[in-house]
């Protein structure tokens, strides 16, 4: 077999970008307090693009911070194909799909302090967790989802995470129509999470109508 010919990494038809993430002005820095440390060159090379078969992200490294130029910027590009984590369940014991705690979940997180939306300070983030823990909450039936405890950030500093998440789900749905052999129980679910305190926190399925107290 020839290299680079896996059916799972080829564009489904023509290479199609479903969407590009919109970032806060301080990205790739983590918050508005570090805006002054970010160079214009790094901003120009920061991107997250959802294609028809993969998510590609670049979070460049700036060795001289705000004084960094194109010559010294180091690209840090990562790619996640839709038939691999975080879009699909990972393996347990090398070759057994780890579905015992539910399907993986990709979620958009809106930072809040009580009822104060902190998006302007930290931006919204896209996170991923290896399992949704069957929807269990931190306090069994209330508070934030348990899967946040085992989640890791995928795309920080996003301006409108819910919009980008909807495009991620659309790309994922189209991909699985082309690859029905991937079991539904191994496919990631997409949710929106309000990071808050107690019963004020909420979760919502991307593309769904139901809002539940989390």
Question: What is this structure's SSE topology?
Answer:
Elements: E1 17-20, H1 40-45, E2 47-51, E3 54-58, E4 77-81, E5 91-92, E6 96-97, E7 105-113, E8 116-117, H2 119-122, E9 124-129, E10 152-158, H3 161-178, E11 189-195, E12 202-205, E13 211-213
Parallel strand pairs: 7-11
Antiparallel strand pairs: 1-2, 2-3, 3-4, 5-6, 7-8, 7-9, 9-10, 11-12, 12-13
Coarse shape: globular
* Tally of contiguous helical segments: 3
Task: Indicate the structural class.
Answer: alpha+beta
Total domains, how many? Answer: 1
Q: Biggest β-sheet: count, sense, barrel?
A: 7 strands, mixed
Number of strands: 13
Low-confidence stretches: 209-214
Query: Helical proportion?
Result: 10-25%
Termini, distance in Å?
Answer: 49 Å
Reading the helices and strands in chain order gives EHEEEEEEEHEEHEEE
Q: Which strand-content bin applies to the residues?
A: 25-35%
Q: Tell me the radius of gyration.
A: 18 Å
In round numbers, the mean pLDDT is 82
What does this structure look like?
This protein has 214 residues and is of the alpha+beta class. It has one domain (17-213). The chain has helices at residues 40-45, 119-122, 161-178, and strands spanning 17-20, 47-51, 54-58, 77-81, 91-92, 96-97, 105-113, 116-117, 124-129, 152-158, 189-195, 202-205, 211-213. Strands 7, 8, 9, 10, 11, 12 and 13 form a seven-stranded mixed β-sheet that branches. It has a four-stranded antiparallel β-sheet with strand order 1-2-3-4. The longest helix has 18 residues, at 161-178. It starts with 16 loop residues before the first strand and ends with a strand.
């Amino acid at each position: 077999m020839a290299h680079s010919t896996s059916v799972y990494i080829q564009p489904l038809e023509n290479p199609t970008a479903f969407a590009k993430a919109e970032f806060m002005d301080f990205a790739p820095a983590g918050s508005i307090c570090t805006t002054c440390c970010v160079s214009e060159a790094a901003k120009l090379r920061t991107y997250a693009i959802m294609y028809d078969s993969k998510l590609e992200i670049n979070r460049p490294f700036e060795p001289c911070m705000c004084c960094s130029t194109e010559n010294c910027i180091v690209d840090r590009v990562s790619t996640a194909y839709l038939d691999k984590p975080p879009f699909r369940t990972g393996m347990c014991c090398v070759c057994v799909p780890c579905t015992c705690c539910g399907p993986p979940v990709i979620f958009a997180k809106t930072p809040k302090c009580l009822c104060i939306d902190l998006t302007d300070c930290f931006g919204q983030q896209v996170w991923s967790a290896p399992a949704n823990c069957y929807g269990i909450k931190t306090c069994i039936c209330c508070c934030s989802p348990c899967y946040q405890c085992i989640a890791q950030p995928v795309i920080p500093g996003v301006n409108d995470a819910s919009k980008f998440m909807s495009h991620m789900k659309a790309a994922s749905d189209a991909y699985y129509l082309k690859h029905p052999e991937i079991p539904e129980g191994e496919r990631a679910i997409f949710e929106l999470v309000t990071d808050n305190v107690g019963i004020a926190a909420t979760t919502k399925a991307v593309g769904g109508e139901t809002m539940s107290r989390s």
